[in-house]
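**Protein of interest**
===
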Amino acid sequence: MIWFINSFPKIPGWEKRTALSQKLQELSLTKKLFLVYSVFALYFLFYHEAHLPLFWMVGLALIGYLVSSILFWGIVFAFRKLETKIVLPAIFAEVGIERPTIKLVPWVEVAFFAFSVLACWLTGFFENRSGILFLLVYAIGVLSARLIDNKTYYKIGLLGLVILASGLISFKSLQKAEIFVAYSMFKPDFEQKDLSRWNYNEENRTLSNEDLKLSIHLPEEFYFHNPQNLGMEDKTGIGQIAGIISSSDSDPNRYPSIKIFFVPFRFDNESELLSEFKKFLDLQVQRGDIQELNELEREVFEDRYFGTFWTFYDVLRPRYAKTGMFFLAKHKQPYSLVFIIDESLIKGRRHEESVEKILTSVKIEE
């Protein structure tokens, strides 16, 4: 057995591995934790972005890792500044008076709470009332530990607070990067034009765009979202976004919603557009936004709309719903319009009544 153990140094690379192991052992606990965190973080990020092309996958994973690493060391730095030593006069020791030699730094404590609240606000955590209630109850619990002078539980509570805030920031950063990647992948390769000049007649609730020679009637409780007010996520689709009609004046994606996309040339049929739309749906499935995607039969509406629809489970708005695209044919303008529709499933109907009314009202000047 001894000769077997003594033969280990003869293995190629054994000394280098031994030296590396010794260096790892010499690292501080914080650095060891960071190494372990890095392994799991990188694995998760690469796995999470595996549905993207290699360039985008590596880029997004590194962005997520960079943001989370900065936050990790920021938390470490802040915790080291949370307490400070008190230098006691020698006379206290001579007369036998003992006092705590370490105290908390108030401005650092305030910074912890301010950072956490700001992070929750910026990432939309407070958009849901339950988020406000959770943070309020948790903060009261942490402050209670501070009042009873239980430093251990207080510091654990603060750590939990900043970990929550850091997690939200990392997730939001990765989400924004994913939105940018999706927009870049489906960004039109033609020169885009200004499609924001829409007019609205309140008396008859009619939308019109002179550049497109297009008019649409809005049913009651429906709203139009101008493309100049939309973010990259809402602009992502087939062609250039011309606007969105939805049932909410603040949320362009609230069901039912109709996204209008513009392409500056004509198509003989919808097959090429449908191929692009399938790629867009596949990306949503791989991102985990939707599940249980099932394709329905090809559909024709009013003998001028041609397209295909799918049923799916909406993870972001938990419900079963329907999505699809219509290509508007049979008009004489030199462009194509694509209507991407997201709506609820209605038993006994192909589409919601309001969606059919909007599609029927679409008119293009000859």
Summary: The mean pLDDT is 80. The chain has two domains: 49-185, 198-364.
